[in-house]
Amino acid sequence: MAAPAPAGAAGSPSPPPQLPSPFAELVKSPSGLEKVVLRGSRNCCVEVYLYGGQVTSWKNDNGEELLFLSTKAIFKPPKAIRGGIPICFPQFGTHGNLEQHGFARNRFWTIDNDPPPLPANPAIKAYVDLILRPSEEDLKIWPHSFEFRLRVALGPSGDLSLTSRIRNTNNDGRPFSYTFAYHTYFSVSDISEVRVEGLETMDYLDNLKAKERFTEQGDAIVFESEVDKVYLAAPSKIAIIDHEKKKTFVVTKEGLPDAVVWNPWDKKAKAMQDFGDGEYKNMLCVEPAAVEKPITLKPGEEWKGRLALSAVPSSYCSGQLDPLKVLQG
Ligand SMILES: O=P(O)(O)OC[C@H]1O[C@H](O)[C@H](O)[C@@H](O)[C@@H]1O
């Protein structure tokens, strides 16, 4: 009698990769692209596409979506998915010769089932580790060997964290430099009711004025027109206060000195094929980043950059929000 064919042999479907967390599941999305679904308590849930290593959804206990994803997003390579948290690497924006925002956001990442350990946090049960290594084609446009490990974790209170570890694996002794951003799209009720705190008095490069340097004046940042600024040496905590939704997002960043703030407003919105004309009203990008000073790694060196997001219902602070409490708490 013929021996049973091993799983994955021609003709038999290969078994889905096992994920180390029982709260993570690999599923196929309607577009045919694979995504990992992380489940937390009640309706808390995060979705991460292998395409781009991109988080596209983060829902709280009530199942309410906290990230913006365009209704016109295109889930087809080589287009990057419009919304969620695209990863900009090895280049942010046009700060170099590569395509805008580098290539990590439109490559297929794989599941990394045996990553080098990260500091243990037994409270985190739902997580996934992904890895990106350059292909032969990638090496032609950026001639450096690297390992980019990304852990996406959903904490017990619904917090979302992304930890990136980038290692130089060049074996020719050459260092490399890169810029980076977690291009986070937050879902907001109405952009003209949103305030960003933590960036006032900071210096920034204005992408709308040929990257000229200015100093932010006055109070919290509010939005009345297109904004595309790179805040330099921004604090490790930034708050996005959505008055209408009575919600405050707290963005915590580590290893990432800068913070980009972007809203395309009406004209640019119309010019983007994968973005609804009026959608600029319901989104704001606040992007922990390393832009002004590229990061340089020698062979064998590793860099770590972390983003942690939480959404606090601002009912307790509505109208009497003490931003310092949020930012320093
Ligand atoms: O359209 P994308 O390539 O995704 O870029 C969207 C935006 O990303 C960042 O926030 C940049 O600062 C903007 O200049 C850019 O327009």
Automatic annotation (TrEMBL):
Compositionally skewed regions (Low complexity) per UniProt: 1-12
Pfam families: Aldose_epim (PF01263)
Amino acids binding substrate: R82, Q100, R105
Top EC class for this record: isomerase
Top-rank taxon: Eukaryota
Enzyme Commission identifier(s): 5.1.3.15
Gene Ontology MF terms in the entry: carbohydrate binding; glucose-6-phosphate 1-epimerase activity
Keyword Transmembrane helix: no
Reactions this protein catalyses: alpha-D-glucose 6-phosphate = beta-D-glucose 6-phosphate
Catalytic site positions: H183, E287
Biological process, per Gene Ontology: carbohydrate metabolic process
Secreted keyword on record: no
Sorted UniProt keywords: Isomerase
This protein's name: glucose-6-phosphate 1-epimerase
Protein's organism: Panicum hallii var. hallii
